[in-house]
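Researcher: Predict the fold of VTC domain-containing protein.
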Amino acid sequence: MNPAVRALARAAMAARPVPLADVQARAELLARFDRRYLVPVEVFAAFAAELTDRRRPGGPFAALCINGRRWFRYRSVHYDTPDLRLFHDHRQGRRLRYTIRERLYEDTGERQFEIKLTGRRGETVKHRQPLLPGDPALGAAPRGFLASVLDRTYGIAAPADLGRALETDYTRATLVADGRRITCDAALHCRDLESGRTVRADGGLVLVETRTAGRLTEADRLLNGYGVQAAAFGKYCGGLSALRPDLTADRWRRAVRTTFPAAV
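Model: Structure tokens for VTC domain-containing protein follow.
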């Protein structure tokens, strides 16, 4: 087993299980502030042990559990225009930026069409709509949903020439407390859907994302105490940068090299 997958599995099994309905009630966080960290497995093990310690003041973080499982396989297809307008909007830090993806929860078969926008205060705002089996991700209903979200949020039209740009898959465990959620991802694999090239993340890294309605969390402070600082890294932009080095922005370069050492 990949060392990072083993580390997040151990962390999830050490925590009290919590069902999806409770996670959605306590910390759904479709609008949130998030910070991302590239955490070596040894640091992650100590970090997770502190959060899930049953003696922790305020109570321990619990692990999402669905049908007895505490870690899950995710697959996403990210969409962009032929000239990668959405990628470049992120690279240039434009105010009205967003990503579009189809997400498959491989262990349950559930599919979602998702739009992630950047809010006025820099927060992430996610909109999503279920996809039925056989529904095309860019069919009439998802395109109408996309057009509606972009019009009422940004006052802009949806791009008409969207296509499949990048596929990502990885394993995730989720730790949760009231109003706080921490996603822990391992074994990230990215495939360029134009060239077919692939790249895998360092097997000794766990990609941790803290999510909260506020700014700085206990988890952020713990990671900072271990000497791990927040990284400018997202799976779509980071993966595409690793696969197409001519695209890499300076502010992502260090994180991309850390995450995908084989690519550089």
